[in-house]
Design goal:
Number of helices: 7
Shape: elongated
Oligomer: single chain
Length: about 180
Amino acid sequence: MDKALQTMIDNMPEKTGKSLTEWKDVLKTKSFTKHSEGVNFLKKEHGVTHGFANTIVTLSKEENNSPTDLVAQQYKGKESLIPIFEALLKVVKTFGDDVTITPKKTTVSIIGKKQFALIKPATKTRIDLGLKIKNKPTTDRLESSGPFGSMCTHRVQLTNASQVDGELIDWLKEAYEKAE
């Protein structure tokens, strides 16, 4: 955790009258559709300064998003892509016990020793699979990373679970083995 953030959390009881856990409990009794509504509630109703209010609301939101919730949000309205996502997970789980699947807000990171793949529902009909395979030439299918920037070296666009084929599995395996 960031040192400044930890200091803020440590100082919270003295500066605001409650610990972070107590503030999270206060927020659980309310339901806000926007971040700013939670911040304004803490400022107006409890006299919390903006910096603390923003931190409390941000940290309570992160806790409310379980990995399952994050994936569900990514595929809301894109349910037809779930079989592709599940096919990719099935493959990477066979690579080793060190493979970690980490859902974020808009992507799912696949990590071995280091991150080697990234799954992103790009449109309602396409998943972009980012791969990190240094010094690998691009092909018509194995494109340059595009929207992934330096996080990945390549991208494969997937519109059907049948595209999780031998060639793609080989690329995933190569990315996993080269992750350092």
